[in-house]
Structures
1.
Amino acid sequence: MGAFHAYDIRGIYGVDFDAETAYKVAYFLPSLLNVGKVLVGRDVRVSSDEIHEAVLKGVTDAGADVYDLGLATTPLVYYGTAKHGFGASIQITASHNPKEYNGMKVSRENALPVGLDSGLGTIKKWIDEGRPTPISDKKGRVYQFDIKAEYISFLEGYKEDISNLDISMDISNGMAALFARPLFGNLPHYIFEDMDGTFPNHEANPLIGENREALVGAVKKNGSDIGVVYDGDADRVMFVDENGRFISPDLVIGLLGHYFMRNGGEALVLQDIRSSKAVGEYLATMGGRMATWRVGRAFAAPKLRELGGLWGGELAGHYYFRDFFYSDSGMLASILVLNVIAQFKKEGVKVSELVSRIEKYKNSGEINFKIEDKRGAMDAVRDHFVSKETPVASMDFDGYRVEFPQWWFNIRPSNTEPYLRFICEASSEDLLQQKISDARKIIEGRQ
């Protein structure tokens, strides 16, 4: 049962979970959330059809009806859940993981995430206890539920004139293929556009540099203004500038301010605990107020709703929008970013120039350490730095984020992998490297 994680169910199919597990999750979900119908979608992975069959059987054996979206992006499932009033939904996907993985993202009413602490843990307990799964006397039915055209129409409502842009776009052989060309037409230079659950060209994880190499090559070959790349289930999107340089996803939170705050006013914006200090400083000049919270959709989406925020984002490339039911959508994020880039191009500003206005500090990116005693190492790093310098701010809700006048760090345990993650940002490269070296010595000394 190693597939149950903080945010979803995910693992190597046939090793960490199987069709029987998928059946039981689907069977128990209607009673967990007290619903009579469940919205279901799936990605194009090789194992998704088998899991889909098990999920449909589980829901209907429990006496609930299935509304089947068929092939879907994860944001399409969020849209359908919230827009059409479903109290439960399942998207069968392993998002950006390699082809041998699969999983299930579960949501409840208003597309609110169901994580380990909000329902998945209960289902895991029921499975572990061997809770029976008798077939209901009133077996549920399966209804086909195609809302793709409706969803495209919703997204088109955010499109502005971007015809002045040259765009290279990597679909990653993933689910973004359902909507990219219907939305953007023949304008972009597409690569890896065919849906293929074996991901023959590169893994559908754009956060890893080697998976962006083809996009960088396309941007340079085509002389594009910007490169766009989606992950496997299209809930994330990332960008490279006209030189092929990767744009750190947290900086895009700041860039989106030019869309949401172009008419003035104030707005609350959400970032995760790893985000650059520069983002909040940049948005403050427009009237943005930055809130910081834990990593992951299971935490970010409810927090944005609770705070009444307008938009938010994460270092991993998720972007959340009040107008999208406080959920994340890679396709909507890319539309809004391209709107901004098209406007700045009219003013003679390149993407790299715009990003440089936001990016003020030197940043390490996440550094991973494999270590058993995560808590001990976290405490040791915090205690070392705090003993040397007085913090100006401190957070402890997702590991530790400790800020000093010229630098800050976050150290946190991964929720999905056996790693301790460290990220650091400083006013100069020398100071950055010094702090990274100090942290590395402390952590590696405890391995």
2.
Amino acid sequence: MKKLTVYTFIVTFFLLLTSCIEEQDFDQYNDLSVVPVLESSILYLEATEDVINNVPPGPFYSEDFNFDPFSEEFFSDRVLDGVITYELENTTSKPLTLNIEFINDADTVLDVESFTIEASPSGTFQRDVTYGNSGKSLDILRNTSKIRVTASNNGDNTSTSTVTPPLVTLKSSGKFSVRLK
């Protein structure tokens, strides 16, 4: 009887061992796709009506911003698509024009976003610019090393707004799908 119990135990042990083992698939990693959406602010600028009134009508602001995040290997090699959202609000008494230029290392303008904004009350204006398959070329982003912002007063330099505080505000943010694996 003791032999039968040992024999039964050994057979049962081997049956359990072989019945619970499944062939391992170590290629699962190759099938893995990790594509998070990265979101970040890009620009925030504001100018008061006093600043605009201190110069003759025409350009009152121009600035070049060194901007390398788009050309970083981590981003440029992995970005799939994205959207840059611009939000503008003008509470001044001035109609304005704003230009945002994307510039490469050779100082070549790759793309321009132009905005014409009426005097207050203009409300908040929003524009979404898509990059990737359904929009502008991703190469614009990949090759951008500088962003230039220029603003022009299309009105006078004496009027003042009744809105407090009278200023123009530009906000921009980006939302991008990036393949990590």
